[in-house]
């Protein structure tokens, strides 16, 4: 048996960077806001828009109130409405599918690739062919989710979507900081949504999100929809339906501080992932990252036939872990109406995947303990089977 570290192990650590950045720097930034009084969408949000667009390498960024709103706003900008088909992964957090559905569009659930856990382009093609054959819905958009921080197969997905006259929205809620070939999240799909919820790779201290785009027209539409469909010329003329989806200045100030250590944090996440990749037993099937891509490792996730037993074993040994996601969206109560396609890979993954501790401040001793404890489980299982 490996010795348990003296400090508790966390699945995420939402507070650790506070010490590294210095609490006084957050307080100073908050004091500035208290003094200027621009609490909602104040100067900090404008600075953040610019810094995030630069970081992603895209033209525009519009920060907003959450990752969910960051998904809804581009769909509103593209005029997604009843009668439209929006193709979306089912093995994801519910918000990916909720965004088109709340606008009245029909979510068409697509199966996952068993290695990357992301949307399977072949099943996307099948789903499109089915919708075309039925002839009732207008092909509108594809939402590609970078599950657990791992970039989706954008070359294939964008080719298929564009050939069929559809836009691609990247749900990069879990993958800000990831790279697809030579591009960063935010600059890969037609538009991108991300979340700054506290457990995300780049996080705030509440709710926050951002929309990334490369055309002025799309960015202007997003900004208008973010504030009740307001006209940029006349703030008392609302020219379309919209939301209240502004980011507040305090959250922007937090993210501006966190950006200072973001690159280093990504390096640390990669170092933890490398140890897991190299040292965890082959009994655990590791999530595949496509060639020339970098995951942001929002989570580190393995696939294991005895998932529930492994989860109990790890918890008994003081290792937090999570089964994300135990129910694909198409099987959830509110979405059963649209549960029209067989999604065998999603169904299987929901029973076999497990996310283990992953954050930039997971110390070497804790990493070793996680690895050894998991390998002990694998050895017990393998010797029983022999
Ligand atoms: C894949 C995915 N999409 C969207 C969201 C929604 O983000 P938020 O919680 O900021 O609304 C999340 C949040 O967990 C997510 O994981």
Task: Explain the layout of strands and helices.
Blueprint: H1 16-21, H2 23-36, H3 43-56, E1 60-64, H4 67-77, E2 84-89, H5 95-102, E3 106-110, H6 121-134, E4 138-145, H7 154-163, E5 167-171, E6 179-180, E7 183-184, E8 191-195, E9 209-213, H8 216-226, H9 249-279, E10 285-286, E11 293-294, E12 300-303, H10 307-316, H11 344-352, E13 353-356, H12 364-385
Parallel strand pairs: 2-3, 2-4, 4-5, 5-8
Antiparallel strand pairs: 1-9, 6-7, 6-11, 8-9, 10-12, 12-13
Helix pairs in contact: 2-9, 3-9, 4-5, 4-8
The chain binds pyridoxal-5'-phosphate.
Residues 66-68, 92-93, 95-96, 145, 171, 173-174, 195, 197, 207, 209 line the site of pyridoxal-5'-phosphate.
Structural write-up:
The chain has about 375 residues and is of the alpha/beta class. The protein is built from twelve helices and 13 strands. The chain has a seven-stranded mixed sheet, with helices on both faces. It has a three-stranded antiparallel sheet with strand order 7-6-11, with no helix packed on it. The relative contact order is 0.18. The mean pLDDT is about 95. Pyridoxal-5'-phosphate binds near residues 67, 173 and 195.
Bound molecules: pyridoxal-5'-phosphate
Strand order of the largest sheet: 1-9-8-5-4-2-3
According to CATH, the homologous superfamily of the largest domain is Type I PLP-dependent aspartate aminotransferase-like (Major domain)
What is the arithmetic mean of pLDDT? 97
Share of helix, binned: 40-55%
Main sheet specs: 7 strands, mixed
Elements, N to C (H/E): HHHEHEHEHEHEEEEEHHEEEHHEH
Q: Which parts are unreliable, with pLDDT below 50 for 5 consecutive residues or more?
A: none
Shape: globular
Give the number of helices.
Answer: 12
Proportion of residues in β-strands? 5-15%
Radius of gyration using CA atoms only: 21 Å
The level 1 CATH classification of the largest domain is Alpha Beta
The CATH architecture name of the largest domain reads: 3-Layer(aba) Sandwich
């Amino acid at each position: 048996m490996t010795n348990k570290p003296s400090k508790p192990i966390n699945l995420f650590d939402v507070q650790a960077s506070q010490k590294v950045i210095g609490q006084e720097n957050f307080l100073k930034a908050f004091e500035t806001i208290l003094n200027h009084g621009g609490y909602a969408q104040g100067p900090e949000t404008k600075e953040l828009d610019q810094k995030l667009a630069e970081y992603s390498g895209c033209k525009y960024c519009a920060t907003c109130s959450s990752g969910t709103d960051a998904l809804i706003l581009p769909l509103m900008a593209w005029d997604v409405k009843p009668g439209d088909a929006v193709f979306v992964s089912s093995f994801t957090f519910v918000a990916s599918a909720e965004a088109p559905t709340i606008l009245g569009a029909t979510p068409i659930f697509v199966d996952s690739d068993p290695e990357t856990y992301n949307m399977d382009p072949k099943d996307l093609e099948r789903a499109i062919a089915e919708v075309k054959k039925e002839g009732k819905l207008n092909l509108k958009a594809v939402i590609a989710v970078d599950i657990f921080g791992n970039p989706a197969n954008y070359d294939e997905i964008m080719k298929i979507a564009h050939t069929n006259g559809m836009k691609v929205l990247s749900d990069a809620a879990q993958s800000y900081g990831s790279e697809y070939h030579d591009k960063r999240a935010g600059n890969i799909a037609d538009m991108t949504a991300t979340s700054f919820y506290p457990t995300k790779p780049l996080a705030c201290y509440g709710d926050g999100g951002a929309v990334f785009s490369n055309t002025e027209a799309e960015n202007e539409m997003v900004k208008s929809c973010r504030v009740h469909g307001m006209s940029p010329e006349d703030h008392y003329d609302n020219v379309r339906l919209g939301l209240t989806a502004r980011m507040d200045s305090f959250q922007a100030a937090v993210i501006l501080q966190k950006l200072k250590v973001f690159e280093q944090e990504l390096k640390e996440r990669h170092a933890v992932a490398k140890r897991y990749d190299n040292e965890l037993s082959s009994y655990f099937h590791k999530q595949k990252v496509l060639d020339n891509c970098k995951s942001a490792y929002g989570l580190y996730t393995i696939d294991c036939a005895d998932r529930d037993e492994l989860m109990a074993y790890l918890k008994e040994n003081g290792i937090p872990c999570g089964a994300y996601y135990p129910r694909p969206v198409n099987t959830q109560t509110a979405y059963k109406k649209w549960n029209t396609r067989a999604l065998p890979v999603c169904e299987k993954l929901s029973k076999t995947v497990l996310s283990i501790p992953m954050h930039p401040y997971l110390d070497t001793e804790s990493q070793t303990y996680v690895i050894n404890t998991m390998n002990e489980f694998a050895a017990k299982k393998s010797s029983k089977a022999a």
